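Follow-up to my post from last week.
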Amino acid sequence: MKQIKVFSPATIGNIGPGFDVLGLAVKNLGDIVEARRLSGGKIRIAAVHSSVPLSCDPRKNTAALAAANVFKYLNIKGGIEMTLHKGLPIGSGLGSSAASAAAGAFAANYLYGAQLSLEQMILAATEAEAVVSGGFFADNTAPALMGGATLTRCCVPLDVTRIGSIRSLKIVLVTPNVVVLTREARKMLPKKVPMEHFIANMANTALITAAFAKNDYSLFSRCLNDVIVEPVRSKLIPGFDEVKRNALKAGADGVAISGSGPTMFAITDNLQKARTIEKQMVLTFNSLGIASKSWVTTVDSQGTRLI
Amino acid sequence: MKQIKVFSPATIGNIGPGFDVLGLAVKNLGDIVEARRLSGGKIRIAAVHSSVPLSCDPRKNTAALAAANVFKYLNIKGGIEMTLHKGLPIGSGLGSSAASAAAGAFAANYLYGAQLSLEQMILAATEAEAVVSGGFFADNTAPALMGGATLTRCCVPLDVTRIGSIRSLKIVLVTPNVVVLTREARKMLPKKVPMEHFIANMANTALITAAFAKNDYSLFSRCLNDVIVEPVRSKLIPGFDEVKRNALKAGADGVAISGSGPTMFAITDNLQKARTIEKQMVLTFNSLGIASKSWVTTVDSQGTRLI
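User reply:
Got it. Predicted complex:
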């Protein structure tokens, strides 16, 4: 029986101020799922290749859970065997579980006739991720499947829109070796926000939306600023302030937390500058005794796909 | 000396959820300013033609104040005489004072060599409006001068972006004969907003931005919803709930308050439906003993211009 190979990209949830609304897929970083049909309606994870040990239990794995949701929507007793190659750090705020979920949904749908819409696959992946993360949010699953920047207007019923891309955008990702749990990060959030902060984040989020819709880096360069969530969540990332300051000094047009962290990302439209920013961010974490991984990347406009 | 005639359109501040951020220029409704150079550095309002008596005192008139700001930016002792034809109701939430300010700024700049940028004219008009309204906000002056939908990211320093237009959009405007003072309407606003309301308004505002950037009515049709300001300000408009309900029943895809009201606007992409919606809204106000004025219009993509 035919074997397929699916790639799903890493994603930056929120894109700074757009909490629970915006998301962005990035290139050259993501999960690969090898999959084949299995008879007898079984959903099996053959292996998970990852830098840390991960469970092959299909009830705890987002790729398997997403595949099961796809079969439910297709109203079939489908079977699938998957091998996961985790290409991105887990618990890093880069949408690791969402990438697996997206790849699992895509693979299951593809192997059984590709009958579902992109929106239905996003729903299948988002429901799978909710089992693991405890919250129903599409700000990673939507960009992972659609590519580019996406906007989640509403989760129930799911309403997602692909906004577009910015071709000249260079993204520096730096993941310090510290643990931030999404669930804990979410609990810290304020219940209410001051009117002027609401207006500031809304304006910046709207301008980021315009920037991606118009493929205009100059708009994006001046609005990566979050006055609501970052002041709270940055406290969970040791060295955040210094790293941000040094990234800006090195020429970044903006720095923010990816999803619930601890990955930080910086933006520029110049590759050489991106390398300098990356170096400065890593060095700053180093100087505080914190190891980190880093990448310079761009927008993944395609989203989850066969490779 | 050459006489010029400038038209500046009416504007919908906020476009529903985008409080203090979004604004939209609409067609066939606005102020006309006739202007000519005056020697001796005098700024004079020759006459104001309006349905209600308005002061010709240049210290109280936004067109004169905006012209004075233009001369200040140009660093000249300019003189101008203007005659205003107020083509839109005053205190209606349709940006009446902003239209006059925009026309005044445009006229003064044009008569003295058109040296200022659009952004500088917006600043001149916004500062003029601030004298009269007591608040520095560009959500009417920016669309009045730029046309289409605009996004104010920041007022000080001023950062405005023209987003775009939606060609198929039909806008129903209904202005009931009640008085709402912007200053009072602003005082009623909450100091803090619940996190989930912030996310909802931000998401809707971002999707409206995407809709105008992409010229996509279908996106706009599903996000004209304000859960923060409308619940408070609608209380100042007697009959608001019934009028909104009947507009939606008649086929409107969304209904909201224009600026601080009392004008309400409804959206559709069908002209015949727009006429039906208009009729139902006016009838509903009528049934409550409230007279109203109404228009069916579209986006003014040009903004303030010579005619």
